[in-house]
Amino acid sequence: MTDIAPPDVTALARGYGRAVYLAAYRVLGDASQAEDVQQDVFLRLIEKPPADVASWPAYLAAMATRQAIDRLRSRQRWRRLRPLWKAAEPVAADTVEEDAAQAERARLLRAALARLKPRHAECFVLRHVQGLDTAAIARATGLTPNHVGVCLHRAAQTLESLLNDPARPAQEVL
Amino acid sequence: MEPTLSPTLIRHLQALTCDPPAAALDAAQARLEHRVAGVRPRSARPARWVGAFAAAATACLILALVLMPASRSVAFEAALRHLRDFHTLALTIEQRSQGMAMPTIHVRMDRGGDARTDIGEATTVVVNAAEHRMLTLLHGPRMALVTLLPTNARPTPDAALKWLDAIRQFQGNAVELPGQRVIDGRVTHGWRLDVQGMRIALWADSDGVPRAVEVGNGHVLSQRIHVTVDPPLEAGTFNTAVPAGYREARPDRD
Fold first, then answer.
1. B15 and A31: CB-CB below 8 Å?
2. Is the dihedral of CA B81, B86, B92, B94 positive or negative?
3. Rg of chain B over all Cα atoms, to the nearest angstrom
4. Mind listing the pLDDT tens digit for each residue in A92-137?
5. Residue A3 placed within a domain
6. Shortest Cα–Cα distance, A50 to chain B (Å)
7. If you count residue pairs, one on A and one on B, with CB atoms under 8 Å apart, how many are there?
8. Does domain B70-248 have CATH number 2.50.20.10?
9. What is the pTM of this model?
10. Domain annotation covers residue A32
11. Does residue A1 sit within a domain?
12. Fewer beta carbons under 10 A from the terminal one: N or C of chain B?
């Protein structure tokens, strides 16, 4: 065979819509933003179908994670511009009834992820939140496994440092 | 080697694993499916010049049909004949279900009804029509199951081979597909057949030798089949003796 059929986005949305939503939700902690990411991911597949995908779950998880991190970063930037509002702003609509300490840890980690280099944050989330192994991350992101390893190492190092010292200036890790 | 995460970082990671309310997830999923179903690919969106282009394309198509060399339709008839009258046939079937790749199936068969089907690397099924025996091999646990077939049993097409039965019985008008493909180094032309509820695309070379078949439109199950007509088959292809190293299991009595 010489050509590749475009993906059936309707079937993919049916099969993986929930997984994409959850992948985005875990990064963002916000139901409406997770839904935006979910819709963006599948609409982009329609607009620009990828040529060759080895594993749809890994590919979609990477897309969702990348977009969620982009949103996380812009959300953090926007919050920094509104310091007076920041204290009064709810962490996330769906975490109200959860344990406060757990919610605070999630908030701190999201804030730290937003300060990593996007590629490092993407690899870290795919590995430690979405549960992909290094080879699957390499295939989904187009990086070499070695490069993924370096990203994971640097992301972990920076996160450890940021979580122990949240006041550390952002320019050191951007 | 992956870095070891500190207990602090692990605790923060665990805080991210909380799931949204099920109702929010269900509602988002429903809205997604509705939205995706209503969107057409950009290439299919009409542009201002599409009307003129469509008219020109229609004119070209009509002209092409009028001028279509007789050999093209002869090739299609020959392709059907090959699939009806083959001596041996080898098929490589790639299947996708809802966008997901399924194990590749390799089939070798002859006109006497013998067939050998290898499903991925997990399972082989050999049907020997003359001996009325079927051998199933599970390669993982290295188990074999021999089943005797009723002497009056007529071979019925396996689900993965319904398209072949449909093509062999096809008597309607096929629609020639635009363009051409190069398969196995040969230029091929395609025809679309709507038969027995299936949409089948058959690609054959100028000698009428079928080279590929596509079944389905990808919504539920789609198949792409690479076809080789009358290939030489190894001796023992349809041998139903339990191979060395395999433990024979007894069929269930009920």
1. no
2. positive
3. 25
4. 444 455 567 888 888 899 999 999 999 999 999 999 988 888 998 9
5. no
6. 13
7. 140
8. yes
9. 0.46
10. yes
11. no
12. C
